[in-house]
Amino acid sequence: MKPKIFSSGLSTAADGLAGVQELAQKIRKDFKGASCDIAILFISEGYQQTPSPDLARAFYEAVRPRFFIGCNSSGVIGDGSEIEMEPGLSVMAMHLPGIRVTPFVIAPHELAILDTGAELVEILGLDPAARPKFISLGEPMSCDITKFLTLLNQGYPDAPVIGGLASGVVVGTDNWLILGKEIYPEGVVGLALEGAIEFENVVSQGCRPIGEPLIITKSEQNVVYELAGQPVLEVLGKVYEALSPDDQQLAKHSLFVGMVMDERRHKLKRGDFLIRNIMGVDYDKSALVVGELLAPGQTFQFQLRDAKAAEEDLECLLQNLPAYNASQATGGILVSCCGRGKGLFKEADHDVRMIRKLHGPVPLTGFFANGEFGLINRKNYVHGYTSSLTLLR
Questions:
Q1: Which domain holds residue 250?
Q2: Of 145, 190, 262, 351, which has fewest CB within 10 angstroms of its CB?
């Protein structure tokens, strides 16, 4: 049996069809006659001559992968570059002998009527005992992606999900997904992989804690009222007053909250928090609305996000990954928030340069997403403002 092959390519050709042929030629050269079992294609919107869905179909016809998945975006990532708000195509092609692949599509109306993970297992027709791993892309405006991942966590415990949400809407175009030859304007598409393939995932949430971790003593749904018996806004006021002037300015636009995901941990560190947005403030009720369901007894801590914290967080997580070995077939998929990149770091290609610095020239594809999938404490979530990197071996 031939070994696995991962071939990535990035094209910034002004003519999208020429870019498709450029990528197809590179795959054929790298594969040397081996079958292309999976191809993942991300297209950054902005091509004038050919609509992006037609470019995706043209790539499928040129390469003819057994399984094909992709979406449009505001920017793409490939090898050593991050292309933001400009046309670009990025691909990862894989030769995966012995791996069973099952495609799936879930329409919004189908997801809406599912109530349990067992029902999702029945729809997908995949045995949880086979320990499938998932590559999945979603359209965020049409369905509840958080519900999809919650049901998947229930039905397939510990199963990792690579992917994120199409972001064409960020640059003023409709989102779309592709699976095989079909374009989908809504819902969720995916591939389930079974067999001898490993996903090693890290999620860089890019925040640093401020104040002290405190127990939620009063909350309802996603609204927190009290921390350690004190009104949450009073606690926040004290935390704010203790910050440096620079951090006080940062808190005005980059304040987040973190919930500890494993209450058995006594020493909290990076990766122990699930970071969420502050959605609103109710001053009359002294309440804080956050982007996650809460429960009394959870440990809660305020967080600040800035470029320095994001860089330190990603570097720390990358150092914990096994080193890249050129003799072992490895491919990387990086899904980054549209709010990272040059907007956060004030320079291009920050994350991919760090990955290459610490892990060498691993073949890499990815895109800037409207929400990133990634594991925190062995459960999949939709994240924001993160970089979610998965190495496939």
A1: 207-305
A2: 262
